[in-house]
């Protein structure tokens, strides 16, 4: 699909992903690729995954739907912060301490920013 015909959100997502790949290679000339912390949000919930793109595997995942959090509502900033701290704990358990933050087609604002701040508080570096 050409850039002109892509829907705007897919174009933003593709541009952001290409930038992450470019920065990852420039900062790591010996090709140590960091896993990607990918965020997906809907009107009601937010979910996060730590993905190893080399192997094509999900290393850790967390969502506002998880029973561990005990959230009444998954669509606010407080819930997003708790999801961020939970993904940090699960990533640490999987042996991941440094990641790249992939916001996808979403702006770094509101709930997406809250997830990032929660993950940083939990101990992830990016």
Walk me through the topology.
Blueprint: H1 8-27, E1 36-41, E2 46-52, E3 57-63, H2 77-93, E4 100-102, H3 111-122
Parallel strand pairs: 1-4
Antiparallel strand pairs: 1-2, 2-3
Question: Can you characterise this structure?
Answer:
About 40% of the residues lie in helices and about 20% in strands. The chain has about 130 residues and is of the alpha+beta class. The protein has a single domain (about 10-120), classed as Nucleotidyltransferase, domain 5. Strands 3-2-1-4 form a 4-stranded mixed β-sheet. Helix 2 (about 75-95) runs parallel beside helix 3 (about 110-120). The mean pLDDT is about 85.
Name the descriptors:
126 residues, Nucleotidyltransferase, domain 5, 3 helices
> What does the oligomeric state look like here?
single chain
Mean pLDDT: 86
State the share of residues found in helices, binned by percent: 25-40%
Given helix and strand content, the structural type is alpha+beta
What strand line-up does the widest sheet have?
Answer: 3-2-1-4
Strand tally is 4
How much of the residues is beta strand, in percent?
Answer: 15-25%
The general outline is globular
**So what's the CATH class?**
Alpha Beta
Q: What are the low-pLDDT stretches, counting only 5+ consecutive residues below 50? A: none
CATH architecture: 2-Layer Sandwich
Number of domains: 1
For the largest beta-sheet, the strand count, sense and barrel status come to: 4 strands, mixed
Terminal Cα span: 32 Å
Rounded to an integer in angstroms, the radius of gyration calculated over CA atoms is: 15 Å
CATH topology: Nucleotidyltransferase, domain 5
Number of helices: 3
């Amino acid at each position: 699909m050409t850039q002109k015909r892509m829907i705007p959100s897919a174009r933003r997502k593709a541009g952001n992903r290409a930038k992450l790949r470019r920065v990852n290679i420039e900062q790591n000339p010996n090709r140590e690729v960091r896993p990607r912390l990918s965020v997906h949000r809907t009107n009601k919930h937010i979910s996060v995954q730590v993905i190893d793109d080399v192997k094509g595997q999900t290393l850790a995942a967390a969502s506002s739907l998880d029973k561990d959090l005990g959230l009444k509502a998954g669509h606010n900033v407080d819930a997003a912060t708790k999801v961020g701290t939970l993904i940090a704990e699960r990533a640490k358990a999987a042996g991941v301490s440094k990641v790249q933050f992939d916001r996808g087609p979403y702006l770094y604002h509101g709930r997406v920013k809250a997830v990032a701040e929660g993950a940083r508080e939990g101990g992830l570096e990016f």
